[in-house]
Each structure stands twice: as C-alpha cells, then as structure tokens.
Amino acid sequence: MNLDIRDIRKKDIEPIKAIIADTWNAKDFIEDEGVINAAVTMMFISPILNKSTFGRVATLDGEVIGVIFGSRVGETTSYRMLQEDYTSELLQLLNLNDIERKVFVELISYLRDTKATKIYVYTDTMSNYGFYDHNGFVRLDEAVTVFNLPIGKLENTNFIYEYKL
Questions:
Q1: What pLDDT digit, counting tens, does each position of 115-163 carry?
Q2: How far apart are CA 7 and CA 9, in angstroms?
Q3: Would the pLDDT of 46 be above 80?
C-alpha cells in the first residue's frame, strides 16, 4: 500500500466530486447522476476552486481517498485553472423538474437578495452530521428526541449548526 498526500491536479477533480457526492449521500435523494454531478460541480467545486489558495489530496495506491481545500488570508487563489467548461452542468440544472428548479432557484435567489452572512443547518444522528463538525460549522445546540414506535423506542439527537459565509 502506498499512501501519498500531494497537491491537487486536474485529473483529481472527478474523484473529488465523487467523494463530495458520497459525503452528502446524494444518491439517497437524487436518482439522476447527471443532476448529482451538476449540483456538486456548481455548488461545491466551482466555488471551492475560485476561492482556495491551497488544496491537497490523499491517495492510496494512486486512488483519491480524501481531499482538503482552504484559503489563507493574503494569498492569491490558485486553483481556478483546474476549472473546466461547466456548460453541461449548468444546462443539467436548468433542466430540473419544476419542483427541483423552484427549490434551487429560490435558495440561491434568497441568499443573494438578502446578502446572507450566515446559514443555519438542522440535522440529526440519522444523517451525516459529522460532515458539519469537520467542515467549519459551529454546533449551536442539540436535543434528544425519543420516538415511541411499535417496535420500541428510537432515540435521535437533533443538531443546529451555524456557518458564516
């Protein structure tokens, strides 16, 4: 086994997209892989590449298994050159069904119109809440909910996170 941590290269972008989609369990709620790719590209990859001043991937036997991007104050962004033509991803998002498009457009419009500086996320232990813990979200509060089901009790911890934009 050969573990390597190195600078990100153009060929790493597709595996990085797959890691992001897996992290968000995208296949659990979006069936169309084209929509998943488009959403990951436009909501994560493009903004990350535009704002990051450093990035690294971890590879195991040549396969990308982890990624980190970040920005240092005062440094020039350096990953814009890894971007490709995102026309097909944009068209994919434009071809969403009416409900998907409405939700997506309303969210983006709302954030732009209000000049939002923070977002709040509600999640729970049945979701991948660890993602927020490890990506700069601040856990503000948590509470346990107990569901009395015919098969017994189900406890679920709910979390509220804050992220400053």
A1: 767 777 777 777 667 777 877 788 998 989 887 878 888 888 888 888 7
A2: 6
A3: no
Is 9 buried (19+), middle (13-18) or exposed (0-12) by CB count in 10 A? Answer: exposed
Q: And the tokens for 62?
A: 């040549």
* Residue 122, Cβ density class (10 Å: 0-12 exposed, 13-18 middle, ≥19 buried): exposed
- Model-level pTM? 0.53
Q: Do 116 and 146 contact (CB within 8 A), yes or no?
A: no
CA distance 161 to 10: 32
Phi, psi for residue 95 in degrees, rounded to 5:
-95, 15
Q: Please, which residues bridge with residue 159 across strands?
A: 123, 142
> How far is 140 from 96, CA to CA, in rounded Å?
34
Tens of pLDDT, residue by residue over 50-100, are 778 888 888 999 999 888 888 777 888 777 677 666 566 555 665 666 665
CB 79, CB 46: distance < 8 Å? no
Instruction: Look up residue 16 and give its amino acid.
Output: I
Tokens of 31: 């069936």
